[in-house]
Model the fold of this input.
Amino acid sequence: MRSLLALLLVLVLGLTLTASVAAKDAPTVAADPLLERRAMALAEELRCLVCQNQSLADSHAELAIDLKNQIREKLRAGESEAQILDYMVARYGDFVLYRPPVKATTLPLWFGPLALFVGALAGLFFVLSGRRQAPQAQPLSETEQAQLHALLDAPKDPR
Done:
């Protein structure tokens, strides 16, 4: 039983290593290495619309692969990087860019985090300053002290 388990483990490790080596040695999609470099540099500037936290170059989603192929086709057709970026922005909006331009519609993207941070600091300041100005405890009146002593000195119920 142990030898069967060991054999299975060796097979799984062997397949894993073979797959990783094959993935590293995968040929580029474009036959022209210069075209492929330009396509990948452009894909680094664009966000994957499916993954949203990866560039097109890093993503393996079907849409990302299609967009990378579109980039390659447009580069083969002689379009410049700026024309391709303009096409992608016209089709998918500024969200597709990793570094969207500063304009009225993207101001929340650029300055929203700073505004939230400043608002949180202001809220923290007001909360902490409000604690300092909390009213001081008033001493008990003689009537309240007598009631307190009566409650404390009362016989306890032995239940």
Remarks:
- The helical segments are 2-24, 33-44, 62-76, 81-92, 107-132, 142-153.
- The two ends are 67 Å apart (CA to CA).
- The longest helix spans residues 107-132.
